[in-house]
């Protein structure tokens, strides 16, 4: 069942109950008020008749010491004909509650008469022959006699009005329910419109349309829910894009890794087969063995780099305070003009940083090694260390080929190389910067790149003191 139908149905039920109870109370209240008025009028009329009877008794000749029954009947007849429009309905009974006079049409039984005491007045509502009456009974003291005067006042009109009121109110209630149903149908449709839009957006997204967003049509809680849903959809789309990018990166990684393995393995297998199947002179045998050795070392270096990246991604650095001079002393021993064919310029400011010494040495070695590969022999590579506002900054600057801006955010991916032919010619596999990025990540730092094609590059990172 749709929520709009539930809302409509619940509203109709509430309206029906409210109108039903209120209508019953209103009509019944009017009926009871009218009936009380009629009862009061009947009681007043009974009192008037009683007073009139007692007055008429005073006019009886004094020769009667006890009021005779014939006189009672005569007075009752006069009182019966004294009504303004129609004859009054009265009944007179003596001390023994035996009826002395009864008006034509007086159809009430004697139950009220038998229950009335000499000093009391009583009344009841009776129904007879399809009509309703107020039946009263009161005692009269007349010349030493206790008589009982009963009256009947027709109040059928009050009951007829009540029946008409209920009938009219039922019609009004049905009309109001019909009109309310139509109005609530539109209100329910308007209130549930955000839910329908959210449902449509959910189905579109479930079908693969992750760019679809629900339209906000209100500023209430449902409108806020729509905003939250769209924010969730944005986050979901971003995560899906990231996952797709990562999946694409993994495919590229596997392709590059397979290619990087294939190239040295092809050379190794080819030269090994040549050594196995041909008799070669000493020089060719040495060249073949040298190719096998070189490509094997390249595979070994690539394996170690991959292992380092995996370990760096899963591990955490154990930081300690290290003097910056330690790093530069190590680099000066590692990189000299004699063993690299490059000119190195080292400059540093003294101080200490919090780092894992061997890992940061690996970062610096990789950065300088990449600078050498990107530069022509005899070029200058500058390695600097200085204090900046964020901490201690290391920089490696070269005069090499530079990196285009669109390539700079990709170079930290494994196996990615800007100039593949140049990197492979110098035993590069595109793993050094990927390793550097992971090591710096666990040091809460990141690699920064400043480079222009043909103008060299400057790689740097900052460590806390």
Question: How would you describe this structure to a colleague?
Answer:
Among the domains are: 165 residues, PAS domain (Beta-Lactamase); 148 residues, Heat Shock Protein 90 (2-Layer Sandwich), CATH 3.30.565. It is built from 13 helices and 12 strands. Strand 9 and strand 10 form a beta hairpin. The protein is rod-shaped, with a radius of gyration of 57 Å. The two termini are 65 Å apart. About 3% of the residues have low confidence.
In short:
The chain has helices at 3-58, 69-80, 111-115, 156-191, 193-206, 221-277, 282-314, 324-334, 337-340, 357-374, 405-408, 420-425, 432-441, and strands spanning 89-93, 99-102, 121-128, 131-142, 145-154, 320-323, 343-348, 352-355, 380-388, 391-397, 448-451, 457-463. The chain has 465 residues and is α+β, with helices and mostly antiparallel strands.
Annotate the secondary structure layout:
Elements: H1 3-58, H2 69-80, E1 89-93, E2 99-102, H3 111-115, E3 121-128, E4 131-142, E5 145-154, H4 156-191, H5 193-206, H6 221-277, H7 282-314, E6 320-323, H8 324-334, H9 337-340, E7 343-348, E8 352-355, H10 357-374, E9 380-388, E10 391-397, H11 405-408, H12 420-425, H13 432-441, E11 448-451, E12 457-463
Parallel strand pairs: 7-9
Antiparallel strand pairs: 1-2, 1-5, 3-4, 4-5, 6-8, 9-10, 10-12, 11-12
Helix pairs in contact: 1-2, 1-4, 5-6, 6-7, 7-13, 8-10, 10-13
């Amino acid at each position: 069942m749709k929520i709009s139908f539930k809302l409509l149905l619940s509203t109709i039920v509430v309206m029906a109950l409210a109108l039903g109870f209120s209508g019953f109370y209103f009509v019944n209240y009017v009926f009871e008020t009218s009936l009380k008025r009629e009862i009061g009028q009947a009681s007043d009329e009974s009192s008037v008749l009683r007073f009139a009877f007692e007055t008429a008794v005073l006019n009886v000749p004094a020769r009667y010491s006890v009021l005779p029954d014939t006189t009672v009947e005569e007075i009752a007849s006069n009182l019966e004909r004294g009504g303004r429009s129609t004859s009054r309905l009265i009944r007179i009974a003596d001390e023994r509650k035996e009826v002395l006079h009864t008006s034509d049409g007086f159809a009430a039984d004697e139950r009220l008469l038998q229950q009335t005491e000499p000093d009391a007045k009583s009344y009841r509502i009776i129904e007879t022959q399809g009509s309703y009456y107020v039946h009263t009974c009161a005692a009269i003291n007349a010349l030493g006699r206790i008589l009982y005067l009963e009256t009947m006042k027709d109040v059928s009109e009050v009951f007829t009005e009540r029946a008409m009121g209920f009938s009219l109110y039922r019609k009004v209630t049905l009309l109001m329910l019909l009109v309310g149903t139509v109005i609530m149908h539109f209100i329910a449709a308007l209130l549930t419109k955000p839910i329908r839009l959210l449902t449509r957006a959910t189905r579109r997204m479930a079908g693969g349309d992750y760019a679809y967003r629900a339209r906000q049509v209100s500023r209430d809680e449902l409108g806020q829910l729509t905003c939250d849903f769209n924010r969730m959809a944005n986050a979901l789309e971003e995560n899906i894009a990231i996952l797709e990018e990562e999946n694409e990166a993994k495919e590229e990684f596997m392709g590059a890794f397979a290619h990087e393995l294939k190239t040295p393995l092809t050379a190794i297998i080819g030269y090994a087969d040549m050594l196995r199947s041909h008799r070669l002179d000493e020089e060719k045998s040495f060249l073949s063995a040298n190719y096998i050795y070189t490509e094997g070392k390249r595979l070994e270096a690539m394996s170690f780099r991959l292992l380092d990246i995996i370990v760096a991604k899963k591990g955490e650095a154990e930081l300690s305070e290290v003097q910056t001079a330690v790093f530069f002393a190590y680099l000066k021993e590692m990189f000299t003009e004699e063993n690299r064919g490059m000119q190195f310029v080292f400059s540093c400011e003294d101080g200490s940083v919090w780092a894992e010494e061997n890992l940061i040495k690996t970062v610096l070695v990789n950065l300088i090694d990449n600078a050498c590969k990107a530069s022509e022999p005899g070029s200058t590579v500058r390695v600097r260390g200085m204090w900046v506002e964020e901490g201690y900054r290391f920089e490696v600057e070269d005069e090499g080929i530079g990196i285009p801006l669109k390539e700079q955010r990709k170079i930290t991916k494994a196996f990615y190389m800007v100039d593949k032919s140049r990197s492979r010619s110098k035993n590069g596999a595109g793993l050094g910067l990927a390793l550097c990025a992971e090591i710096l990540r666990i040091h809460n730092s990141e690699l920064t790149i400043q480079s222009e094609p043909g103008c060299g590059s400057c790689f740097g990172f900052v460590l806390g003191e």
